[in-house]
Amino acid sequence: MSDRETIHVAGEWRPAVSGATREILDPADALPFAVVAEGDEKDTDLAVAAAHRAFDGGQGAWPRTPVAERAALLRRVADLLVRDREALGLLESRDAGKTVEEGRVDIDCVADAFRYFADLVAGEGAGRVVDAGSPDIHSVVVHEPVGVCALITPWNYPLLQASWKIAPALAAGNTFVVKPSEITPMTTIALIDLLVEAGLPAGVANIVTGPGHTVGARLAEHPDVDLVSFTGGLVSGTKVAAAAAPTVKKVALELGGKNPNVVFADACATDEAFDTAVDQALNAAFIHSGQVCSAGARLIVEESVRERFVAELARRASRIRLGRGTADGVECGPLVSEQQRAKVESYVASALAEGAVPRCGGKRPEPAPERPANGYFYEPTVLDQCHREMRVVREEVFGPVLTVETFRTEDEAVALANDTEYGLAGAVWTADAGRARRVAGRLRHGTVWINDFHPYLPQAEWGGFGKSGVGRELGPAGLAEYRETKHIYQNLAPKPVRWFAG
Predict the structure, then answer these.
(1) Does this model's pTM top 0.85?
(2) Contacts of 361 (CB under 8 A, 6+ apart)
(3) Where are the alpha helices (DSSP H) in 259-358?
(4) Domain 7-255+468-488's class?
(5) 483-491 and 469-470 strand pairing
(6) CATH 3.40.309.10 spans which residues of the chain?
(7) What is d(CA 178, CA 88) in angstroms, rounded to the nearest whole number?
(8) Domain 260-450 belongs to what architecture?
(9) Catalytic residues, which ones?
(10) pLDDT for 263-318, tens place per residue?
C-alpha cells in the first residue's frame, strides 16, 4: 500500500478512481505528514458492492462463519492492537493533535472494545426459546446480522469511535464500509491492515477515505446499505437521517452533547474534597482540548462556593501546558484544524458580547519551542456569569471553553442541567448519597456520573437523549444495533386447521 492507496475494497488497497488525493496535516504545526486517496461516490459504490458480495456470497460468507471463529478473530485483533500500541498511539497524536499518552489510552480502550464484543457473542446461546403452550410447537427468537453497514466516524477519537462500530458489526456477522473523518483517517486505515492480518476475509472490511458530502452522503442514501451508524455533529447527523429515510434503513446517530457538571457545596466541604472536585472539573472540560462529545463544558456550581471554586479552577486552567502532543511535559494539544479554532473563537467572542466574564484564556497562546506559531492552539478558557440565553451555553463548542452558571437549590440545579436540547452525559458532585441518587435519577442524560467524570465501560451502553441522537453504542444494546431479530415458529405435528368448511 502506498500513501495514496488508502481505499480498501474487496481485499485490495487502491487509489481513488478519480486519482484525487488529500494532504493530512499535523495540527501542531499545520504541516502535511501524509497523503491519502480522496474517494468519491464511485469509490463508495465499489466498496458497498464488495461488502454486499461478502455478505451474500454463499456458505463461505462472513455471516455464516461460526460465532466462535468470529470471536477468535476479534481477540486476535485486540492482541495486534496491544502489539502496535506505541506506533498507533503516536499516529493518533499526530493525526488528531492529542497527547501521546491520550493516544496510548485510546488504543487500550480500542483493544478492550474488541475483547468485550468477542466475549459477548461467544457467551450467547442459540436463541431465546419461547413457550408456545404446546409440546408440538418449537418457538425460538434468534438474532441475525443486519447486512451491509455504513460506519461514519468523527475526527476527535478516530480509532476509538471506529472500534465502537466495527467490533460489534463484525461480532454480529455483518460486513461494512467505514468512512473515517477526512482530516483524521490514519489510524482507521491502520486498523483495516490489522483486520486483514488477523484473517478477516476479503470484502468484509472496506474503507473509503474522502469527505462527508460525497462519500458519507452516498453511504447514507445507498440502497444496498442496510444500516448507517454515524457519530458527529447535529447538522450532519440530521442530513444522514434524511438521506437514509427513503430506503428505510436502520440508523444509529450519536450527535454530541452540551453536558452539565453540577457541583453542590457539600462536595467541597474539606480541602481534599474541594481539590478533587476542581481537578475533575478541569478534566471534564479540557481533556483533548475540550474536543469530546461528553465534555463537561457547563459547570453548574452552588452559589455559596462559586467564587472560591471558579477562582481556583481558572488559576489551574491557566497553567495547563499546551504544546505538540509528542513533546515532554505537554498536558494538552492543539485543536484539530484552523476551522475548528475559528469556530471556538467565534463562540468566545459572542459570549463576551453577551456579558460573559473571562476568568482565564480566551485567546491564542504565545508561540513556544513545544508550541509552533502556526499550530492550531487555543488557551483553556473559563467564562463566568453565563446564562442559558447565551449561544456558548446552548450550543456545542467542541473546544477548551468552560461556562459557569450558578444555582441555590437542588430543583434549580436539576432544571439548569436539563435545560438543553442535548442529553448525552452529565455529572453530580455531592457528599449526600440521597441527593446523589435523586439528582442522577432526574437528569435527562444517557450517562450520569456521581462524583466522577468521563469514565465509561465497554459493557455499559453509551448514547444520549434528545438531540444527542438515537440508538446506543457499547453494551448488549450496542450489539443489538447491528442485528435483526427473527422469530422461528416450528410446528412439529402439523394437521388441518379446518377454518374453512369447503
Answers:
(1) yes
(2) 317, 318, 378, 379, 380, 381, 382, 400, 401
(3) 271-286, 306-317, 338-353
(4) alpha beta
(5) unpaired
(6) 260-450
(7) 18
(8) 3-Layer(aba) Sandwich (3.40)
(9) 254
(10) 999 999 999 999 999 999 999 999 999 999 999 999 999 999 999 999 999 999 99
